[in-house]
Amino acid sequence: MPHKITRMTSELSRRDAVRAAASDAVPAALADLGALVRIPSVAFPGFDRGEVERSAAAVKGLLDGLGIFDRVEVKTAVVPETGQEGMPAVLATRAARNGRPTILLYAHHDVQPVGDESLWESPPFEPTVRDGRVYGRGAADDKAGVMAHVGALRALIAALGTDFDLGVNLFIEGEEEAGSASFAQFLSDNADALRADVIVVADSGNWDAVTPALTVSLRGNTRFTLGVKTLEHASHSGMFGGAVPDAMLATVKLLSTLWDEDGAVAVPGLLERAAETPDYSEETLRSEAGLPEGVSPVGRGTILSRIWNKPSITVTGIDFPSVKNASNTLTPELSVVISARVAPGQRAADAFAAIEAHLRAHAPFGAQLSFRDVDSGDAFLVDTDGWAVERAKAALAEGYGVDAVDIGVGGSIPFIADLVREFPGAQILVTGVEDPHARAHSPNESLHLDTFRHALVSEALLLESLDATAL
After folding, report:
1. Where in the chain do CATH 3.40.630.10 domains reside?
2. Is 261 an annotated catalytic residue?
């Protein structure tokens, strides 16, 4: 479908005004980010739901303060599988005018648990600036995404006033880190309010701290809890060890079959995507991932093909007596959490079926296996030929001063498959404010301040461009 660009008489001064306003908006955006980081909005079971509600209210206040929306609401949806109420999201809507497009801006205000707080160099919910970065849980993932949206809109308003023509919807989710259980239902319940021509998902990363990126592929995921049982009850390890298998022995042998000698996934039926990847050295991997000298990478092929285009399997948790509680006992059963990343092009459900079949076929000593808490999300591939992609790359290049690159991401954003299904005509742009040293989900998560500034300016310029686009 053709699109034409229409500009105000003073095109250059208009864009310059937006750029200058965006730079001016950064300090206030960072101050508001600090206030959001201080709210421990963990949406996982067992944490205080009230903090997530407080975070949603704070985000609503920021959006109300813009004064441009027809409606701003804190809303929830029911989780279809359980009938329980999902976590609070913030939904804001503004109708397009004069034939302009509508953009949907997505981010999430919930955060990961802090984990072992002793590993943090500063309190996780007290934003702390060190060496050009602000540290705190959610400082990068994804409260910075929230504030990039808010700051960009503030800049647009400062430069153009509130009477611009672009339609703007915001969806600030409250349970992304906990699995987005009510996301699909929320989309269905609010489809008309969320419908847009362009969707910007600010929950990804950049090539490095100075080079912007547009994420064009994401791996899918499947996560589940595996139960392994070998005994009816615990027994003395001295009396019976060597004659009967304990659950840990069976589990170690079973898990070892998931990978080959190079550490590559060895499960039949898990697919790989054939695609070129840019140069990325082992030295860079060691720096960004924290891989010590002497510890080798795993897998085969180019490093980025292993991260972007091939499956991976990780054991992320285990229920077993701790070192403190160890005793001379044969453990009868245990549980393991397995998280697999699925190559773009394969359905997550098919990947789970392949892993389940492999584990059942390799269960040693007749160990009894169970599978529960299965959670899956499909991969994502972007059509890079869309007109909105062109405008996004131009805005990123202008905002960062460096041309944007297309990247894949080894992580997963499962709800994007829901967006594709609900809004098949929308162009989805996956961006973000993180750099490779952000340590999202880990202790000492941080946001690179210059990256945030460039991201905010870039988004403001994208909004200006779309406001000047007639459909």
Report:
1. 4-218+379-470
2. no
Q: Over the stretch 306-358, which tens digit does the pLDDT of each residue have?
A: 999 999 999 999 999 999 999 999 999 999 999 999 999 999 999 999 999 99
Angle CA(369)–CA(374)–CA(375) in degrees, nearest 5? 155
Identify the active-site residue in 32, 110, 435, 467: 110
Lowest mean pLDDT among 52-56, 385-389, 412-416: 412-416
CA distance 444 to 122: 8
How many other β-carbons are positioned within 10 Å of the β-carbon of residue 100? 20
- Tell me the fold of 4-218+379-470: Aminopeptidase (3.40.630)
**Dihedral in degrees, nearest 10, Cα atoms 305, 307, 313, 317:** 170
Selected catalytic residue, list 141, 142, 165, 176: 176
> Catalytic annotation on 110?
yes
Percent of the chain with pLDDT over 70: 97
Residue type, 31: A
Question: What is the C-alpha separation between 308 and 406, in angstroms, rounded?
Answer: 12
Segment 213-220 shows an average pLDDT of 94
CA separation for the pair 207, 295 (Å, rounded): 24
Domain 220-273+310-377, CATH: 3.30.70.360
Rounded CA-CA distance 344/380 in Å is 6
Residue spans in the chain of domains classed CATH 3.30.70.360: 220-273+310-377
